[in-house]
Amino acid sequence: MPERAVPVTLGSSWSRRIDVDGFRVTRVRFPPLLKLPLHTHERATVAVILNGSFDGLMRSASRPCPAASVLLEPFAPVLGEVGYTRDLVVAALGQRVAAELRAPDDVTPLAVEGLILEMLALTARLRSATEHAGVRPPPRWLAEARALLHDRRGEHLLVSDVADAVGVHPVHLARAFRLHYGTPVGTYLRSLRLAWAAARLTDSDDGIAQIALQAGFFDQSHFSRAFKRQFRLTPLAYRKAARR
């Protein structure tokens, strides 16, 4: 039976949408235990799972897709094939887009367009660095450094700590990391912490001070300032908005 093209909102219980300069950006919520038939979407699609999880059928194989999963339908010439990756920094950008849609103002279209372009660029670089002229695939030690940041995001790491762990000079690590992943090591780590904290605010009843410490921030006020800069909402307002 051929797959039919459907909107991304098929089966959703709630959605909110904004169109910006050729992009259609939709925040969608699906009910638990929903089963959808095989389908394609009307447009090339990049889907970022912000909360919860689901099992998706890709290339005839079932794949679990937890939070921070990024699903790709052909988006040539940037992302020219169906694919899957998982990245907390892409998810953090997705959380910022969702925050813009929760509390829109006159600047929201411009902000959303910038965030979407940043998401596409980072996803494309993570998927296939070799497609970008002059950029080689990241060496194994750099991939290990990035994985270490994910695994130890709650610790008070210095660039020198990460560099020692993978056996390179800190300056070399900092330059290579920014070249391949498009952001400084410290900014990347902060985004990991905030993305993890945003998920905990949504999915748990832990206190904000507890989440702040677990995420690696010195105290609640430091966490709240960083969180509001990234998501335009305080942690408490974000929690309330995410649970509406």
CATH architecture of the largest domain: Sandwich
Task: Kindly state the number of beta strands.
Answer: 9
CATH topology of the largest domain: Jelly Rolls
The number of helical segments is 9
Rounded to the nearest angstrom, the distance between the terminal CA atoms is 38 Å
SS strand fraction: 15-25%
Average residue pLDDT: 82
CATH class of the largest domain: Mainly Beta
Give the low-pLDDT segments.
130-135
Helix content: 40-55%
Along the chain, the helix and strand elements come as EEEEEEEEEHHHHHHHHH
Structural category is alpha+beta
| Main pleated-sheet profile | 3 strands, antiparallel
Number of domains: 2
C-alpha-based Rg, rounded: 18 Å
Widest sheet, order of strands: 5-8-9
Shape: globular
What tags apply to this protein structure?
single chain; 244 residues; alpha+beta; Jelly Rolls; Arc Repressor Mutant, subunit A; 2 domains; three-stranded antiparallel β-sheet; two-stranded parallel sheet; 9 helices; 9 strands; 47% helix; 17% strand; globular
